[in-house]
Amino acid sequence: SIAAHLRDHANKIYIGSALAPSHFTDAQYSTIAAEEFNSLTPENEMKWANVEPSKGKYNYGPAEKLVEFAQQYDMIVRGHTLIWHQEVPDWVSVLSGDDLHEVMIDHITTLVTHFKGSIYAWDVLNEILDEDGSFRKTIWYNNFQTQYIADAFEAAAAADPDAKLYINDYSTEYSNNKSEALYNLVKELKSQGVPIHGVGFQTHSSVGKVPSDFASTLKKFTALGVEVAITELDIRLNGQSEDAQTEAFVEVVKDCVSVSGCVGVTFWEFIDKYSWISEETPCPWDSNYQAKPAVAAIEAVL
Ligand code: XIL
């Protein structure tokens, strides 16, 4: 029988990976990416410092390569990310007040407009909360307190009314202060009519750390009237067995599949060889391009 691929099983949710076009010269990498996934996220190519390294001078090439790859292989694209405290270019980090606000709106408007029609969802805001649930003291918060939040969503919605607009963060899969703060924030934004449509759970996890109540957390968020997605999944081995890692992958995918309103799972690179985490083999493919047992096990629960 012909081996089926993840995307062939992905009827209820999409299954994606962060990809980097710098790896496309690696034929095994691009073959697996095209065969297995029906969604991709640019790993770095849409981040501010990469896409607009100097004011008004956009470097769209690498991001466009990914969008073309997605079109060629019938994949959707998650745009990542408009506003973050990392990858803020130097020319932006020296600004403040009205000047900073103006370039923020301009950046969002220009980038979202450029890719309008090819992006399923944008991570409008990334990692704006601290572990204790307070707002992270970023250049954005320090200048505008929380007002930039609605402004960023409004600007993105004006530029592409069809894209799903997300807030994205890590360590929010747990029942903790950060997850609670995120919930309250999304609730507040919804009640104010801010155009927010989704909550991304990065889920950079570790064997033994996937919470047993993850599905109920996802469900709780969907009750606010937003969709949810697992946006950056990787599971560090944490000294445990590959079988335990398989179980952890299956658990997360099952949690998403079981919640109506959980629309997809994206791995943060699918292959250990190119993971941003250089140790602890956190991906479903090993560095020799072999699918780990996790892949077949995930197919079985999709
Ligand atoms: C990471 C990339 O994978 C690395 O290549 C880069 O050097 C740093 O950023 N949370 C996010 C992602 O939202 O954008 C980060 O990606 C990983 C953590």
Put the structure in a nutshell.
Its EC number is 3.2.1.8. This protein has 302 residues and is an alpha/beta fold.
Could you please describe the fold and organization of this structure?
The protein has an 8-stranded parallel barrel with strand order 1-2-3-4-5-6-8-9, surrounded by 5 helices. Helices cover 40% and strands 18% of the residues. It has helices at residues 6-9, 27-36, 48-51, 61-72, 90-93, 97-114, 139-144, 147-159, 177-191, 214-222, 242-258, 293-301, and strands at residues 14-19, 39-42, 76-83, 121-126, 164-169, 198-201, 204-206, 227-236, 262-267. Helix 10 runs parallel beside helix 11 (242-258). The chain contains 12 helices and 9 strands. The longest helix has 18 residues, at 97-114. By secondary structure, it is of the alpha/beta class. The chain is globular and about 55 Å long. Strand 1, helix 2 and strand 2 form a beta-alpha-beta unit. It has a single domain, classed as Glycosidases (TIM Barrel). Residues 43-44, 126, 202, 232, 276 line the site of (3S,4R)-3-hydroxy-2-oxopiperidin-4-yl beta-D-xylopyranoside. The active site is at residue 232. InterPro entries: GH, GH10, GH10_AS, GH10_dom. Residues 1-301 form the GH10 domain. One of its GO terms (molecular function) is endo-1,4-beta-xylanase activity.
The major pleated sheet works out as: 8 strands, parallel, barrel
Domain module tally: 1
What is the assigned CATH homologous superfamily?
Glycosidases
Strand order of the largest sheet: 1-2-3-4-5-6-8-9
- Structure ligands: (3S,4R)-3-hydroxy-2-oxopiperidin-4-yl beta-D-xylopyranoside
Query: Could you give the count of β-strands?
Result: 9
Rg estimate, integer Å: 19 Å
Topology order in helix (H) and strand (E) letters: HEHEHHEHHEHHEHEEHEHEH
Secondary-structure class: alpha/beta
Unreliable runs, pLDDT <50, ≥5 residues? none
Helical content class? 40-55%
CATH uppermost class: Alpha Beta
What is the straight-line distance between the termini? 20 Å
Write down the overall geometry.
globular
Query: What is the overall number of helices?
Result: 12
Average pLDDT figure: 97
Q: What is the architecture at the second tier of CATH?
A: Alpha-Beta Barrel
Strand content: 15-25%
CATH topology: TIM Barrel
EC number: 3.2.1.8
Catalytic activity: Endohydrolysis of (1->4)-beta-D-xylosidic linkages in xylans
GO biological process, one term: xylan catabolic process
Domain GH10: 1-301
